[in-house]
Structures are given as C-alpha cells and as structure tokens.
C-alpha cells in the first residue's frame, strides 16, 4: 500500500476546507461526533481549518452511544478544543416508530436506517440555524461497499476524507496523535448494541483496502466485496431525473 505524506495531506486538506468555508460565506462547520475514527479525523481537520467548528454527539437508542462512543467523542473534543453539544435522539426515534405503526411493516434494516437519518436531520437543522456547512465523515472503503445510509451519514456539504481507505484513516489518526481508544476500537456504525462494521459485512477493512489499493483478494472476500459494491450502486449514482 502506498505510503502517504501525512504532513502534506494534513496541510492540503486543511487549506481546502478553509477555502470552502470562505467561498460559501458561512460562519463555521458542524459534524457528527460519533466517537469513531472517521468523525475524529474530520473533526480534527475541520477544527484546524475553521475555529468555529462544532461537533454534535447524538446518542440514539444504542447503549454504546451513551457509553464508550460518547466518552471517546468528548475525549477527542477535549484534546483538540472542539466545541461539543449533545442531542439525545432516542425519544425522537421512538416517536417516529410509533408514527409508522399501521403505515408499514418495518424491517430491521428500515429501522436501523432511521437513526442515521435523524442524525443528519439534526446536523442540517443546526447548520441552517447558525450558518454552517455540514462535514461528511465517510471514507473510501465505506463508499465502495455502500456501507452507509442514503440521505443519512452519506449526506453532507463536503467530505475531506472520502478518498482515504479505512486503513489510511487509522494511519492518519496515529500520525495526528488522536486518542488511542478511538484508533484501537473496532469500527462500528453504532446502530445497535454489539454491532461492528466488519462483522456485519463479513469481510475485514484490511481485505477491502487491499482490494481497493492492490486489486488482490481471496475468492471469498472478492465475492463479498463485489456483491456489496453492486447492490449499493444506486447510492453512488445521481438522482434519476426525467429528461
């Protein structure tokens, strides 16, 4: 895998974000501070580029959201001086599910996608109220696999890490000296207790990233990666419009 010049990457991305904020004529930036690796890197870069960067911790039903995720989010904020606010969305999610009773028979997948969409609604509400840009936190590996919620964590005004694989995000965070608890914990969307990305996908980020950067994979891993990529193609396409 190609070695990245993290100092150069850091300076380039910070300058890019700073120019975006200036061109947009906004007050600042808001991002979802989930306590995970991707949001941590985005938060660090945005804070370096724009002093008025706010991270929102948004627990939603999962016990992990209230525990280690929130703790790591606050730890990141303290280390890098990022303003932090908390919006508890558990009751909002419950109200939405109650409103849907008798409207549709909700599948587990449909239910799990509610939280990411509520979080993005929250971020855009704050952005609209305070004149901010919403920073995206999805990496290249997740993008290729389609491992994100359409109009949820897949939405944003800009994304400073979309070209980085999960492996590169970890390396970048290590270079930045981010909290070890964030770097070392198993990646998880935090959609429900006990959930991890790799367990849910059935393939490791290491295998995905090797496939993306070197084109190599075991027969089993390649089949999983190609299946995820194919069935999530609709997420990467522009909205279909009649012409």
Explain the overall architecture.
This protein has 243 residues and is α/β, with parallel strands linked by helices. The chain has a single domain, classed as 3-Layer(aba) Sandwich (Rossmann fold). The chain is 56% helix and 7% strand. It has 13 helices and 4 strands. A 4-stranded parallel sheet has the order 3-2-1-4, with helices on both faces. Helix 2 packs parallel to helix 3 and helix 2 crosses helix 8.
Q: Determine and state the CATH class.
A: Alpha Beta
The overall pLDDT, averaged over residues, is 94
SS-based structural class? alpha/beta
CATH topology: Rossmann fold
| Reported CATH architecture | 3-Layer(aba) Sandwich
Q: Beta-strand percentage? A: 5-15%
C-alpha termini separation: 43 Å
Count of distinct strands? 4
Shape: globular
Estimate the helix proportion, in percent.
55-70%
The CATH homologous superfamily:
HUPs
Residue runs with pLDDT of under 50 for 5 or more positions:
none
Which sheet architecture does the biggest sheet show?
4 strands, parallel
Topology as H/E string? HEHEHEHHHEHHHHHHH
Q: Biggest sheet: strands side by side, in what order?
A: 3-2-1-4
Q: How many H/I helical runs? A: 13
At a glance:
The protein is of the alpha/beta class and 243 residues long. It has 13 helices and four strands. It is 56% helix and 7% strand.
Summarize the SSE layout with pairings:
Elements: H1 6-24, E1 28-32, H2 37-49, E2 53-57, H3 63-80, E3 83-86, H4 90-100, H5 108-112, H6 114-130, E4 132-134, H7 140-145, H8 166-176, H9 180-184, H10 197-201, H11 205-214, H12 219-231, H13 233-236
């Amino acid at each position: 895998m190609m070695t990245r010049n993290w100092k150069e990457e850091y300076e380039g991305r910070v300058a890019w974000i700073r120019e975006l904020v200036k061109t947009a004529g906004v007050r600042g930036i808001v991002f979802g501070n989930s306590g995970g690796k991707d949001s941590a890197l985005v938060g660090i870069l945005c804070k370096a580029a724009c002093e008025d960067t706010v991270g929102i911790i948004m627990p939603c039903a999962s016990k992990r959201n209230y525990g280690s995720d929130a703790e790591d989010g606050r730890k990141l904020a303290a280390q890098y001086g990022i303003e932090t606010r908390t919006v508890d969305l558990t009751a909002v999610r419950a109200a939405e599910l109650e409103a849907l009773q008798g409207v549709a028979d909700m599948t587990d997948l449909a239910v799990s996608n509610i939280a990411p969409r509520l979080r993005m609604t929250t971020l855009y509400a704050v952005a609209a109220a305070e004149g901010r840009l919403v920073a995206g936190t999805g990496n290249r590996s997740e993008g290729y696999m389609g491992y994100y919620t359409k109009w949820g964590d897949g939405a944003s005004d800009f994304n400073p890490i979309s070209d980085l694989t999960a492996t590169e995000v970890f390396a970048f965070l290590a270079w930045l000296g981010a909290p070890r608890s964030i770097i070392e914990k198993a990646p998880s969307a935090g959609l429900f207790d006990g959930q991890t990305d790799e367990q849910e996908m059935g393939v490791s980020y290491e295998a995905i990233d090797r496939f993306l950067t070197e084109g190599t994979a075991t027969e089993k891993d390649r089949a999983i990666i190609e299946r995820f990529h194919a069935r999530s193609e609709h997420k990467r396409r522009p909205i279909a419009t009649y012409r």
